[in-house]
Amino acid sequence: MEEAERKGKFTPQTILLLVVNGLFAAANALSGTFVGVYLWKAKSNFAMIGFFTLCIYVAMALTFWLAGKWVKEYNKMYALRLGVAVSATFYLLVLLFGTRAVSYIWLLGTVQGMAAGFFWLAYNVVYFEVTGPKTRDRFNGWAGVLGSSAGMTAPWISGLVIVHMPGMTGYRTIFSVSLGIFLIGVIASFFLRNRKVQDDYAWGYMVTCLRQKQTPWHTVAAALVAQGFREGVFGFIIGLLVYISTADESKLGSFALITSAVSFASYWLVGKLLKPRLRKWGMLAGVLAMTLVIVPFFWQMSYLTLLVFGIGTALFFPMYSIPMTSSVFDLIGQSAESARRRVELIVMRELALSAGRVMGTSLFVAVTFWSKSPPVFTTLLLVIGASPLLSWWFMRGQFIAKAKSA
């Protein structure tokens, strides 16, 4: 660990990683917000959108597991750049397929899942290496600030471009701009340093770890599954619901602008103020609030109730995500042995998240295929949206242990 890291300061590598993350977030925010809408306009079917998302999560999990050997034993920066390049390929395919994209759902989902797998595996390993317990919460706060900044401006601009250009020209324009931003991200990644890991990749480490009786990873893995259960569905459904309620891409852009502005402020504040000793109760307050903002949907699913949900989630989500992420990575770095196995543990983290995402999305596809009833749909959202409560329940012992050692 570098001297600046020990003193709780950001290093040039830390700042550069934030830049790469910001570029990746900007490119995805510019176009990713509207991919679901693009597919919905071609074929209005919740189950189809859910299947597309399911393909993403399965491909992402497999890529994490298979690419782990490459990242650990060779050069993780190649995986990071490949993730950005494959993301660009995804948008290129969408441009080439045009309105026929719905006929290639499985291919598009697989490509996007591979892109996310390569990028986030390498990113998370580098994130672990350039941050420490003293800088992790602050780094996550700044990463959230950059992501929120991208989420404020990019979808708003995209929405205006789409509605003011004829046909699908607006979509083709924003997808093309995303390609350019991804290329800039690849160039920036060349300045990140590759830290060698002197070990072979253990393919079955997750099974070996979870078979140990005293390991805290039993409850942490369960918490991650619960986290992924919500992420899997809410990552794509809210933007789609906003478009369905308004039939206006510019309204979706405005929704992203408003909610991301709130998220920007919240990430900055929580990243600055939330200390390890406060994680337990801060996270509980966050997950309770995130669950309560779903309740207005039982009265009406409208732009107003969606905006209430969006603002409420943006305000309280950092109280949930920052403690969750920081605590898991603190656990990875708690000993020399676990740090040595950081790639395997990061893969295990992702596999647990992906298991939750696949379970949540599969439930969503099954229920929406079975029933189109609004009360059933809203109840489904509440059940899925309440899963972070289980994350807090499983993580609470980890927070207590961290507070005692702080």
UniProtKB/TrEMBL annotation:
Where mainly located? membrane
Keyword annotations: Membrane, Transmembrane, Transmembrane helix
Annotated compartments: Cell membrane
Q: How does it sit in the membrane?
A: Multi-pass membrane protein
SUPFAM superfamilies on file: MFS general substrate transporter
Q: Which PANTHER family does this entry report, sorted A to Z? A: INTEGRAL MEMBRANE TRANSPORT PROTEIN-RELATED (PTHR23526), MAJOR FACILITATOR SUPERFAMILY (MFS) PROFILE DOMAIN-CONTAINING PROTEIN (PTHR23526:SF2)
Protein name as it appears in the record: MFS transporter
